[in-house]
Amino acid sequence: MSQEPPRAAEASPIESVDRTLRLVELLRERGSLSVKETSEALGIAPSTAHRMLATFVLRDFAARTGDRRYRIGPAMQPDRAHGPSMSQLRKAAEVPLHELADRLGETVQLMIRRGGNIMFVDGVEADAVLRVTVRQGDQMPAFASAGGKAILAEMSNADLEELYRNGLPPWPTSPIGSIGRLKRAMADVRRAGFGTNFEETESGVVGLGVAVHGPAGQVVAAITTAIPASRFKRPAMPGIVEALRATATGIESRLAGGPHG
Asked: Which residues belong to any copy of the HTH iclR-type domain (predicted)?
């Protein structure tokens, strides 16, 4: 009995893995690649090469340069410059978060990005009777959160398109429902330098957030304050953002091994 040759669908996953490994080798060998060079070296369409490189950027295996080329990303560096571990991040944020909560008198939280979502990893709850409860381990779309917006704003529009290539997940209280709306919102966040959430994660809660960067300059987390909408006053925003930025700087210093003062 003759044996049937393997179907293309069965061979495809292996070919995809091989292609990915070859791209890793190419980045290491050449230092940087363009979409055209990647396409020619791997024998794939330019659109496929672009998607592969964009995915590498999202996973920190590559980084985009100013001349539209791609170089080795922090995840491929031997010093693991792609970011701190969860325990390192929590440890670096512990004291600064408590100091921020005392300064603002409001709930403050630490979050990281997980794909298109943010995940709450730590926080300090306010002492006030009317307060926002700390979330831990919860996830929600990054574009619904002030901190998530601060993280997403550091991504290019091309990276945002790749991240949400299957569309934005619905979130009942978020006004952002399309990739076009997301791009416009992120442009606003970039100009402001911080993210806002006016009852977008849940009704009755206002949030402000800023990004936290690792020693290599890449965004690794965000910190936010969550305030009951009934207590929030817009004129207080500049002072709150200043406190958030000072706290982010403190966390960054600890991550870099600087003085903890």
From this structure: 14-74
